[in-house]
Amino acid sequence: MEPRRYRLKKPTLGVCSDGGKRWCVTVPRDEVIEIQRANISKHNATVEIKWGDRALTMFSEDVLERGIED
Fold this sequence. Notes:
Strand 2 and strand 3 form a beta hairpin. By secondary structure, the protein is mainly beta. The protein has one domain (1-26, 45-70). Helix content is 10%, strand content 54%.
């Protein structure tokens, strides 16, 4: 299954994890993110996304409200 791509209409926060440490990253407006699983919905609290070479976690609701499927 191919990843779904969303172009963000507004800057959106994501959480990056590395070695047990977590920090917030702002993904700018007009950037394209990829979601590996196809069943994103408001019922899923978070979703794993890929932005460039970074793996992040975002709230599903943020992606759906701030993104347009690309």
